[in-house]
Amino acid sequence: VPRVKQRLADLRDRRPCYLDPDLKEIWDVLQEVQWSANIQATQLCKSNSVRFPDIGSFDPCQCNGDCFGDVCSNTVDIDVLNETRTLTTPKLFETERVGLGVNTTTDLDVNDVVGEYCGGLLEFPALVEGKPAQAVKQNSGYPLLYNTKSTKGAYVYVDALACGSITHFISHAGDFNGALFELQTWSRVKVLVKMINDVKAGTQIAVHYGEER
């Protein structure tokens, strides 16, 4: 997206040295809500024996701290990226309209990684008898569809209904400041929530999950 690429270029100009987002000043702007007892907290997806094709190794990128997807040598032509960071500063808060939501307690810049969209991986056949292949390619509720298929050639969803990370509670919005990015390292596939706007502490983080959300 041109406007996001311009924001990334602006960020490189104003912040030539990487600053760890977790070390930024924390603002006590809202009352944090405790983690839901019905959701098992996890920072990694449960594989449930789902496997992805191994795309092999790639040379370490030349990025220093930040890894910019628009210029990184490992992401210009393919969806692969070095291991990324997960922030600890986004917290759960009660929203006025949609229940629990995720707000940042620090200022965030475009390109900051909030975290991985975690849950349990599920496989579904690419072809369902009597239905077109795209019939199962939908995002709805908490399951999120990967673009990468499994080694069996099946569609793969990550279901965050019963377990997940802080990203489980990120709300859907038409006016969103974050986005979902699928990345792969070796045979490890993951979807990250990354900021596409600069936001101030106290801002609610939102993404667009698709029309079926």
TrEMBL record:
It comes from Phytophthora nicotianae P1976. It comes from the Eukaryota. It holds the Pfam family SET. Gene3D superfamilies: SET domain. This is SET domain-containing protein. Residues 99-210 form the SET domain.
